[in-house]
Amino acid sequence: MASRPSTTSPAGGGDIGGKIYYTFSGVTVEFPHKAYPSQVAMMSKIVLSLKRGQNALLESPTGSGKSLALLCAALAWQRHESSPVDLSAADSPPTAASDDEDFMPSKRRRKSTGVERSGRTRIYFGTRTHKQVKQIVRELNKTAYKDTRMAILAGREHTCIHPVVSARPGCDEGCRELNDEKGGRGPGCKFRLGVKKLRNHEALLSKMDCPEGARAWDLEELVRVGREITACPFYASKELVASADLVICPYNYLIEPRIRDGMEISLAGSVVILDEAHNVEDFSRAAASWEITREQLRESMADLEKVETSAGLLAEEYGRLALICSNLCLYMDSEVNSNHDYEDSKTRVTVRFGSEVINSFNQLGVGPEQRWDMSKDLQRVRSDKEKEEKSNTKRKRQMISGATGRMFEDLIHVLHYLSYNQEKGRDDYRVAMVYKKIERGGKETGGNDTKGPGAASSIRGWLRDLSDIPNCQWRCDSLRFWCMSPAVGFEGLKDAVRCLVLTSGTLAPLASFSTELGVKFHQQLEASHVIDKRQVR
């Protein structure tokens, strides 16, 4: 239960300058001002949730100070939990680790886990947008916890300071090309080489103007310091996570497994707080959805076949992955003359249930039943690439591109989701085949030029030429996997963490929100949005 606010030290040390404290379940929270009743109710639920390792779903009216209450309660619990006299952690339930290690690249720098060198459970604070990250930092600086060791994660489009790469539309690819120095195909980036200057929090704060001592900083400050000392803010922020007690980022970085993997985020044992969580359902559906185009499959297959000719003992692995690309293209064209759910003069769309598509995929050797073999082949191919890049030979073998590896990663992730909950996930999917009209000369309406009237050419001739289909005037341009249930995309997040705290001004009805996400929330708080009659004249 919450105590009355006090202007004395929790330990009875007398007056300490008018600071206000609240005590919830044995955890003392310092607050910057007298809290509103809604803030007191929120902090009580948050502390109880974190102490017990239980999920919380908390609704509070917009403008009631949710973010401030979240930060103060969570960081006060974090410090209390790491105290030597705190025994509550012994009552915490064991943390489930992710079982998706098979989908990860074969060799990467160790991901930082939920409990690091400070002995504190790491807190990930997710916001809806990058813009809201700055607002959270501003709120954090109002609190007594502003000296918390923190990190902010953001994409290269927000952090790249390379004058050439940052000006390109796709700075992600530009950065990867520039830093491909291992294989001798990239010159390297001088800004990345300077990351060691910002490798810890003390070094970063020493470069900032902090006359009042340690404080929270925002992304713009990190970028400014990076420019001044020639250090990459993107890679510096990833380095800072390793020793951070608080990590702030947009919450799609936490929900989407592909982004988590790319940012090297491990949520095992961590506390995850999602502020303004009313859009979480849409983000979760998007995280489990995917689109692949014929052009991507064609390029990946050509990429694999070129490497296969010089792959030696791994030729079979490269060949099997290339065959998967071919079989996916065959499936895309399999219903070219069937009935369509949508049609206009240039486009046709055929939509199938996930269960129908998976049966066909398994027969073609590209379904969930084969994803483990696919994952092993991809790991061996990537290991081969790393070995070649580290070799001292002057003439390097051509290796697969990063785009090919990422395409297979995405495919494996979708196949994993289709197997969600003992393969019940397939019922939560719709798969759309989008067909474009073929003009004379083999050109798609609104599409790219191709070789011949049908599918692209291949060394082995695996891909089907649509000219052998009578009266064929259409070709499948893309295959789209639409996830209809947010619980499918959210499962990777809920299964790894110590506990989840979701807050927003509009979450009601809480029961249906909980059911949609497939998460049990033991601690709940529903706001009263009805105006008191005393406020009406």
Strand portion, in percent? 5-15%
Structural class label: alpha/beta
Shape: globular
Q: Give the averaged pLDDT, no decimals.
A: 79
**Computed CA radius of gyration, to the nearest angstrom:** 26 Å
Share in helix: 25-40%
Number of strands: 15
Total number of helices: 20
Strand line-up across the major sheet: 5-6-4-7-14-3-15
What profile does the largest beta sheet have? 7 strands, parallel
Low-confidence parts lasting 5 or more residues at pLDDT below 50? 6-16, 85-110, 181-185, 445-459, 464-469
Separation of the first and last Cα atoms: 35 Å
What's the layout of helices and strands?
Layout: E1 20-24, E2 27-31, H1 37-52, E3 56-59, H2 66-82, E4 123-127, H3 130-140, E5 150-152, H4 156-159, H5 171-178, H6 190-193, H7 201-207, H8 219-229, H9 233-241, E6 246-250, H10 252-255, H11 257-262, E7 271-274, H12 280-287, E8 290-293, H13 294-308, H14 315-332, E9 342-343, E10 347-353, H15 354-364, H16 371-390, H17 402-418, H18 420-423, E11 429-439, E12 443-444, E13 474-483, H19 486-494, E14 499-504, H20 510-517, E15 523-525
